[in-house]
Amino acid sequence: MSRDDLLLTNMRITSAVTEEVVKHSPDCIILAVTNPLDAMVQNIFQSSGFPRNRVFGMAGVLDTARYRTFIARELNVSVDDVQAMVLGGHGDDMVPLVRYTTVGCIPLTELLSQDRIDSIVQRTRDGGGEIVALLKQGSAFYAPSAAITQMVQAILLDRKRILPGCAYLEGEYGIDGLCVGVPVKIGGGGMEQVIEISLTDEEHAALRSSAASVQELVDVMASAKAEAG
Ligand SMILES: NC(=O)C1=CN([C@@H]2O[C@H](COP(=O)(O)OP(=O)(O)OC[C@H]3O[C@@H](n4cnc5c(N)ncnc54)[C@H](O)[C@@H]3O)[C@@H](O)[C@H]2O)C=CC1
Ligand SMILES: CC(=O)C(=O)O
């Protein structure tokens, strides 16, 4: 089963849960984890009526942790010294930013061949499925919990951390009205700022393509809602 197969069932669940959350905790910050992640963040953002700083999603921190781990293992170095970020939707076309990946300040491209980098990027994209295949039932929980904890700590301790988060974009990166993974500043106000970094044409195209996959799911949800009246 892919993350997208969960779309309409989880849309109904997150809509119902959001309604209750908004009723009982109107000032809360919602950090969504449910898959398919970006579409669910979009659904929760729209259902809640909250401003965008109070609804965002966890995926990029997990995907980045996997990417950093695979690089650290390949180079036999501490994962603490691998700096990286994975953008885009939490799906098969997520966008590990190779150009911004460094190991102890050294660009990854100086340390690994393009073949090895490509293979790590692909393994990162397939990371969720790899765990599901090993577990046989259910999906990853240790690494997602650690990723959620980082984001919640950033909110509770007002840490102003720069992490990848799924945020509702309002024109940033040329994307308007869609929730996608981008670098964000997380603090006491929730998703306090979308950070825009410069991308090459190729990176930008990859981000747009990933966003297009999210848009497809959002369109399916809109049709289902329209049909249900
Ligand atoms: N964003 C990410 O990176 C990740 C996302 N996920 C997603 O997180 C979600 C949860 O995963 P797990 O905790 O492993 O699943 P799980 O099956 O262990 O837990 C789901 C929980 O939701 C509850 N639930 C079901 N329907 C409900 C409803 N209508 N109202 C309230 N609660 C309801 C169930 O009783 C169960 O306790 C899944 O959608 C999974 O794909 C999981 C890992 C990483
Ligand atoms: C379940 C999921 O989305 C993941 O492990 O990446």
Automatic annotation (TrEMBL):
Start and end residues of each Lactate/malate dehydrogenase N-terminal domain: 1-57
Family, similarity comment: Belongs to the LDH/MDH superfamily.
InterPro entries for the chain: L-lactate/malate_DH, Lactate/malate_DH_C, Lactate/malate_DH_N, Lactate_DH/Glyco_Ohase_4_C, Malate_DH_type3, NAD(P)-bd_dom_sf
GO MF entries: L-lactate dehydrogenase (NAD+) activity
GO BP: any one term: lactate metabolic process
Organism encoding this protein: Geodia barretti
Chain ranges passing through the membrane: none
This protein's UniProt keywords: NAD, Oxidoreductase
Pfam families: Ldh_1_C, Ldh_1_N
Presence of the UniProt keyword Repeat in the record: no
Domain spans labelled Lactate/malate dehydrogenase C-terminal: 62-216
Catalytic activity: (S)-lactate + NAD(+) = pyruvate + NADH + H(+)
Protein name: L-lactate dehydrogenase
